[in-house]
Design a protein that fits this description.
The protein is α/β, with parallel strands linked by helices. Helices cover 33% and strands 17% of the residues.
């Protein structure tokens, strides 16, 4: 039984953006699967969008994995953008001091 169900959009070759659909549960219980998803995409495409619209639960382990992914991409000059970020995710990131590391703007919509 797979704990993470993800749908990874095929890269749009006109814009070279890969969209990664994050799972509903980004927690320590499924950290290995989340890590595998992110590692699979860390060196791909010049640009990646993390779609967090399905995220319902995230803990410190999930946030740390996402921060490591974003930092690794930044160090390779590969941009990461976000879409569908729930307020709860942004609030937890801010509480842990990971807001900037994740690349969230100071103002969320």
């Amino acid at each position: 039984m797979t704990l993470i169900q993800t749908e990874v959009a095929k890269p749009d070759t006109s814009t070279d953006v890969r969209v990664l659909q994050l799972p509903a549960e980004c927690a320590i219980a499924n950290a290995a699967e989340l890590r595998a998803l992110l590692l699979d995409a860390v060196d791909e495409q010049p640009s990646t969008t993390l779609d967090a619209s399905a995220v319902r639960r995230i803990d410190t382990a999930g946030l740390q994995l996402l921060a490591a992914y974003v930092c690794e991409r930044r160090s390779a000059a590969r941009p990461v953008t976000w879409s569908g970020v729930p307020a709860s995710l942004a609030e937890r990131a801010a509480l842990l001091g990971l807001h900037a590391a994740l690349g969230f703007s100071t103002e969320r919509t």
